[in-house]
């Protein structure tokens, strides 16, 4: 019998385990892969993510490595007009936008957990609930024949979550766009200013941001057929597609960064999202089972909020689970259902709003080149983007 089982050892799953550890609950994390899923080069963490990491107790481990990106520039590839976007949250507070290695974030999260918290090569095959001694208990079956009982199950198993499917949530939909991402490495140093650069064209968006003096994260978003890349995910073919075709007219600096890519970091993925009304009206929890991170709110990356919201989820759910614990420090099964309901009520509208804002942001930036779309894009960056960025200055509260 486990107190809590978390399915998935990504950012959401590991952050959730850390949050529960902070409130005195030991969780078992099941991961189908053989080790930490370090795919994905880097990600940007906004002020809301740094607030959550500070509550989890180790934001200083990352802020000491990664400098804040105080501003960025957006270049319209058709008109060559450049707009400046500032990311400062509050000067000197240490919670500005920062780009971090995804692998480093996962390792820092994993280091906060007790030994044997993560069980790798553990593929979930079925989940069901039953009543024992008047309390609802989850029964999880694994591919290797193991059967685990748990008071609570939290699905942090990504966009194509089995737990979300079990809850009856509708499947995420393809946005019609895809992303190619990678990490450029300059052993002698890249010499770039520590600023975020974006390039916007019809049906395309590209950009880069330095992580440190040697590594630069880059991306290319574009309209793509829903069935996948013709390259089959081969990194050499992906780089050739970006440099030789998709971005051939982009600035030489961007092409140089793409050319310095570490092949092991180059990936292709369709951009998926869940309809916001499914988050508002769907079953985000049932009995003693719920979801967090991409399993709850997959969204396009146009506001960079996927990982940030996952870290928020960890703090919020950790706080609500804490409220269901007895004086002896054990989860009371008769109270956990209402605690999970409170968690999902707190998260529904915020996550649905950011799914909508992110999708709208991508549409405005990439769809169409006629005069009214250009005008709308100008208004978006000048006024709407400011409001969207303000949504990232969100305090998810404390754990206790």
UniProtKB/TrEMBL annotation:
Q: Name one Pfam family in it.
A: FAD_binding_3
| Positions of the FAD-binding domain | 3-356
Enumerate the SUPFAM superfamilies for this protein.
Answer: FAD/NAD(P)-binding domain
The protein's UniProt keywords, in alphabetical order, are: Monooxygenase, Oxidoreductase
One example of the protein's molecular function in GO is: FAD binding
Say if the entry is tagged with keyword Iron. Answer: no
Please, which domain of life does this record's source organism belong to?
Answer: Eukaryota
Return the PANTHER family for the record. FAD/NAD(P)-BINDING OXIDOREDUCTASE FAMILY PROTEIN, OS04G0423100 PROTEIN
Instruction: Name the family the entry cites.
Output: Belongs to the 3-hydroxybenzoate 6-hydroxylase family.
Record-given protein name: Monooxygenase 2-like
* Species assigned in the record: Rhodamnia argentea
């Amino acid at each position: 019998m486990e107190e809590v089982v978390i399915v998935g050892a990504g950012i959401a799953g590991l952050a959730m385990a850390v949050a529960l550890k902070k409130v005195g609950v030991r969780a078992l994390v099941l991961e189908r892969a053989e080790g930490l899923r370090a795919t994905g080069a880097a990600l940007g963490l906004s002020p809301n993510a740094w607030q959550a990491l500070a509550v989890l107790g180790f934001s200083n481990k990352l802020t000491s490595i990664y400098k804040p990106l105080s501003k960025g520039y957006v270049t319209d590839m058709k008109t060559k007009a450049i707009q400046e976007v500032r990311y400062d949250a509050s000067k000197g507070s240490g919670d500005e936008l920062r780009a971090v290695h995804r692998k480093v974030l996962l390792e820092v999260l994993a280091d906060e957990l007790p030994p044997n918290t993560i069980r790798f090569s553990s593929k979930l095959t079925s989940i069901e609930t039953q009543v024992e001694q008047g309390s609802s208990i989850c029964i999880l079956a694994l591919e290797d024949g193991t059967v685990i009982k748990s008071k609570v199950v939290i699905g942090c198993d990504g966009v194509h979550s089995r737990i979300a499917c079990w809850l009856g949530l509708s499947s995420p939909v393809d946005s019609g766009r895809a992303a190619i991402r990678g990490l450029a490495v300059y052993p002698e140093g890249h010499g770039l200013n520590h600023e975020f650069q974006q390039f916007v064209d019809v049906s395309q968006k590209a950009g880069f941001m330095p992580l440190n003096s040697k590594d630069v994260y880059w991306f290319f978003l574009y309209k793509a057929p829903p069935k996948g890349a013709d390259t089959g995910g081969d990194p050499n073919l992906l780089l050739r597609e970006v440099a030789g075709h998709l971005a051939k007219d982009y600035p030489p600096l961007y092409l140089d960064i793409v050319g310095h890519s570490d092949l092991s970091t180059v990936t292709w993925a369709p951009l998926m999202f869940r309809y916001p009304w499914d988050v508002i009206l769907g079953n985000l929890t049932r009995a003693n089972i719920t979801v967090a991170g991409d399993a709850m709110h997959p969204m396009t990356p146009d506001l960079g909020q996927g990982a940030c919201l996952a870290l928020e989820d960890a703090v919020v759910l950790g706080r609500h689970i804490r409220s269901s614990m007895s004086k002896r420090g054990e989860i009371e099964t008769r109270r956990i259902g209402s605690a999970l309901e409170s968690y999902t009520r707190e998260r529904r509208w915020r996550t649905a709003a950011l799914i909508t804002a992110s999708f709208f942001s991508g549409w405005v930036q990439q769809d169409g080149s006629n005069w009214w779309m250009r005008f709308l894009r100008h208004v978006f960056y000048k006024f709407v983007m400011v409001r969207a960025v303000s949504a990232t200055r969100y305090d998810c509260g404390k754990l206790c």
